[in-house]
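Design a sequence for this backbone.
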């Protein structure tokens, strides 16, 4: 039970929250393993056993990296009952998030917005042309527009929003900072080698990514094949750069590190304040 709660609360370190089933559905479509393959079945069963999950079929759908996306975008049901009300001091008229559906940094921002019940619109960005953000000098996602003001970089976005929601609070420099840096500097580098582990898995991922957004048939084909090829090679470079010899083992290790750090607590971050 501790492992289930611990994994679910990875998102809390990213200042996350939101509807569990919605995020599970997103992760299911982004599965890095084919549910029909023997290796996927073995991996899923092993992951279920290690994390104490009783539904291996569910684990298969969220196997590998997207298990972290679920955790980073979801809270356990008990946390939903503790969901914070929308701040009376921060009531923006329009919030627009420019994102890639599978981007872990974008999921950080979405989860923060969900946790604080801040309504927002989503604009899916074409990963090849990026035509949706041509108006901006910043060419990465996420980009958040709050009543016309542009905010960039997921951690900076979260910090700015947190201060506006809680103007009398300060972000601690100790444990919260340590684990935010661990997420940004270590955990995210485990993601790509797992999502784009093979050419078939890279194509599967981009097939899902390109189903979101207002893309033409041609744009979808170009984004799917060009994007999958690019990210496959990027993932191999990241794997080499960060000395990842076994992407699945790295995934297990990251999960264990996080659960051990929680030590039975609900949060490791801003949500503790």
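Sequence:
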């Amino acid at each position: 039970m501790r492992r289930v709660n611990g994994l679910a609360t990875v998102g809390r370190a990213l200042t996350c929250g939101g509807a569990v089933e919605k995020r599970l559905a997103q992760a299911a479509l982004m599965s890095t393993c084919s549910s029909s393959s023997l290796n996927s079945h073995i991996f899923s069963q092993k992951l279920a056993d290690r994390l104490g999950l009783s539904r291996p079929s569910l684990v298969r759908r969220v196997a590998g990296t997207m298990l972290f996306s679920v955790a980073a975008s979801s809270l356990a049901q008990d946390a939903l009952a503790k969901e914070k009300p929308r701040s009376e001091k921060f009531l923006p008229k329009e919030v627009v998030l420019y994102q890639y559906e599978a981007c872990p940094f974008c999921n950080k921002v979405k989860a923060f917005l969900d946790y604080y019940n801040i309504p927002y619109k989503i604009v899916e960005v074409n990963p090849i042309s990026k035509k949706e953000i041509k108006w901006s000098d910043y060419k990465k996602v996420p980009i958040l527009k709050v009543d016309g003001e542009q905010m960039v970089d997921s951690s900076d976005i979260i910090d700015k929003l947190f201060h506006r929601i809680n103007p009398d609070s300060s972000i601690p420099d100790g444990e919260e900072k340590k684990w935010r840096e661990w997420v940004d500097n270590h955990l995210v580098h485990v993601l790509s080698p797992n999502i784009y582990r093979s050419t078939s898995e890279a194509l599967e991922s981009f097939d899902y990514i390109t189903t979101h957004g207002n893309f033409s048939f041609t744009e979808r084909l170009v984004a799917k094949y060009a994007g999958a090829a690019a990210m496959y090679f990027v993932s191999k470079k990241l794997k080499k750069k960060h000395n990842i010899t076994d992407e699945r083992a790295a995934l297990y290790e990251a999960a264990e590190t996080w659960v051990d750090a929680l030590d039975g607590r609900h949060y490791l971050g801003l949500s503790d304040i």
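The first helix runs from residue 2 to 8.
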